[in-house]
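Listing S7. Sequence submitted for prediction.
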Amino acid sequence: MNLSRSSAARPQHVVSESGVLRWLSANGSHPPARIVDADDRMPASEAYRLVSRGTGLLWHGDFHNARQLLSAVSRRLHRNRRTGSSAAESFRLHRQQQARRARALALVLVRLDPGHALNLRGAPQVRTACQEAYGPADTPYVVPLRELLGVIGAGEWRRKGVPVPALGARIHPHYGVFAPTRSEYVDLVAESPMPPAELAFDIGTGTGVLAAVLARRGVERVVATDISARAVRCAEDNVGRLGLAGRIEPLQADLFPPGRAELVVCNPPWLPAKPHSMLDHAVYDPGSRMLLEFLAGVPEHLQPGGEAWLILSDLAERLGLRTRADLLTAISGSGLRVVGRSEARPSHPKAEDPTDPLHAARAAEVTTLWRLAPVGDDTTRT
């Protein structure tokens, strides 16, 4: 899955009651105009009042209590959730509420000292995880606690890996790179009938999981592209771990590499909406840019007799954000035709959660692997 165009942290400076400190966020959070000190004596109601007004809270107390405060503020922000009269309206309100919640929760802050030292009572050791996410730190900086918790969690995932049954191995996601925790799109690539292919392109490779599946299925060489430098480094790491370094070439590029291949695979972001964070770029694609540019460019990057595989959820259709007719028109308008398709129903916690505002759409969601070929290419396919 394709990720953010820019994955670099954005250093700035903020003024707090403790002085001027460097602001650092790899997730695109903006520094607040005003910051006050906070510790274990601050009640959740006061913290909620302050962050709701855009005031940052620089925490000086116990680390566990900071997490508790963040959870309490989050619960208060959830109380006023609304749903719309249609699926599309519910989605619009859901995204607005998610954005407001993310902005507010990013205002609970912690300071890290040089070497990524988190000097709070009860704090875990975060140096390795922060080094992986942010790089070296020679000066103190301030970061949202919520982002730091994500960095810590990503560090654990990177260390332990995510099991991928289709590979019989683990994939190790890096911070800011979408993890292959949903198996249906990987299984579709692992099981769909495949044309003979010496060379394949994996467009928007992310962790490199689909490139690895293609190599394990017998493709001699895979060029795996991603616009995100973080994703390319992550794919290189996983390719090395899997012993596929000689067969998979991760490459930073916006969509296609040079040349033509017998198989071109893409699992683009599924929802045509604005991303609010770095990870959101793996799910939200404003105006379906990546989807439409992939379809438009495929004919120029396929060998005769080759196929393009588009792996796409129909969640956008069920939310009223795109119609099936829109998708088929985009396919035909790009000079492509459908030569086959495989489907899978995803299994994930949100599909089983009736309190989720998008539950009905998620519960009915279907993921499809569309096998596409250029119009006029009548090569026999199975």
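Caption to Listing S7: primary sequence and predicted structure tokens for the chain studied. The radius of gyration is 22 Å. Confidence is low (pLDDT under 50) at residues 1-8.
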